[in-house]
Amino acid sequence: MASMVVIQHKQPSSIVLSSSLSDFNGSRLTASIQYKRAMKQPKGAMRVTASSSSKKILIMGGTRFIGIFLSRLLVKEGHQVTLFTRGKAPISKQLPGESDSDFADFASKILHLKGDRQDYEFVKSSLSAEGFDVVYDINGREAHEVEPILDALPSLEQYIYCSSAGVYLKSDYLPHHEANAVDPKSRHKGKLETEKLLQSRGVNWTSLRPVYIYGPLNYNPVEEWFFHRLKAGRPIPIPSSGLQVTQLGHVKDLAVAFVKVLGNEKARQQVFNISGDKYVTFDGLAKACAKAGGFPEPEIVHYNPKEFDFGKAKPFPFRDQHFFASIEKAKSVLGWKPEFDLVEGLADSHELDFGRGTFRKQPDFTADDIILAKSLVLT
């Protein structure tokens, strides 16, 4: 079935949400998303700066997670922003803590190009007709998905790609740096091949490699996995010692980094790791989630994954290894730094999403019960 072009403005809906939360010392922390800076700006507010010139920007994707926050920043800076999606989800919806006026302004300006990026002929014809200056590719997974975009836009000023720190070759020497060896066999090899394609085509490209991303509206069960168990008052099953070190970056900090590279000559044909400032153990993450959500400190049960057959059930949302990356290059070259520390970021996510009763997936404790049943027998 042929794809259809729909360039349209969306009308605002009517949900208004705001929030605050208690920190683990009993004081109050502001956890609402703010888009207009007040005299004293709350922690984690979405910061924007004046843009030197307006760009005609295409975002591939933009209605699930990263693009929702990125598109708002770009519109605030005065750019003309179009989302390329299949049209299965509204291109604008009011976010928790977002004012009516801010949402109405965004919804009146965001544009939509409806189509399937796998329909390469449609991509070429529609993008060529529109003539975008900049492309943000948020949902690209394979290099062959990018070629039609480059073919359609020979005068493209910049291609900004969302890659992944998962492209790095597993190593005993951490953190991962941008110049470290990559793994051509990783499950993110398509992203690695896309970076190689961009380099070979000689375009002005920039690639960001997040580690684990978290925050409101997260569709991956990162913090949500812990919140479900904490809310149910269940023990937290964590593989091996629980001392495996990992790293999380807040989605709003990632969105700011994406804006920082726009039109930035220092970002030309460069790769940047983007994540939080601190590393955390699996056990520490469970405790941080509890603090962020106002739950009691959890009971943690360690298990040996090799002793179990979980079938199709996924027992844990993180790779069972040390996995973290240096963000010093982004800080020094781009002048970017994460605004959220881990507990504050998890509190922001909980208060604006899970704590309101909204989440992406229902809890599945199948693997937990297998682990806990064996643990009870051993004790």
Automatic annotation (TrEMBL):
A single GO molecular function term of this UniProt record: UDP-glucose 4-epimerase activity
Record-annotated membrane-spanning stretches: none
GO biological process: monosaccharide metabolic process
Superkingdom classification of source: Eukaryota
Gene3D superfamilies: NAD(P)-binding Rossmann-like Domain
InterPro entries xref list: Epimerase_deHydtase, NAD(P)-bd_dom_sf
Pfam short name (any one): Epimerase
SUPFAM superfamilies xref list: NAD(P)-binding Rossmann-fold domains (SSF51735)
Residues in NAD-dependent epimerase/dehydratase domain copies: 57-274
One annotated Gene Ontology cellular component of this protein: cytosol
Designated name of the protein: NAD-dependent epimerase/dehydratase domain-containing protein
